[in-house]
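Treating backbone geometry as a discrete language has practical consequences that deserve illustration. Part of our work consisted of pairing the sequence of a single chain with a tokenised description of its backbone. What the numbers capture is local backbone geometry rather than side-chain detail. For completeness, the protein is quoted in full, as a sequence line and a line of structure tokens:
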Amino acid sequence: MDTTALINYLHGDEAIAEYLEYNEPLPLFVPTVALHEVFASAGRLRGRDGVEEARDDLDWVKPLELSADGAAEAALVRAELQESENKIGSMDTSERSKIVRLSDCLSSLCPNPLDEEL
């Protein structure tokens, strides 16, 4: 999930809640960059309490470090999608079908930590 999807989840977005419910048995990995952006936004809006509340509300996510290679690949995917007019923008994550598409794209960019445990 990206920053916008996490923030929308914290604000009660039903489409994201449905997506999470549908995929509940699977762990949900979130890049640490996105977590930082969410916590920083919560801090700007509500100070220390906001950061603590956001962290508590997102304690179920699995932080995933985004490497330089992963960040570059994400930029290439975004560029390819933009060229084909299948843009991924900050507002795209509010619709369930686009969340799934974004999730599929991101899952191909980052190694699955569960694979390493096998």
User: Anything to note?
Assistant: The CA atoms of residues 29 and 62 lie 5 Å apart. The longest strand covers residues 29-31.
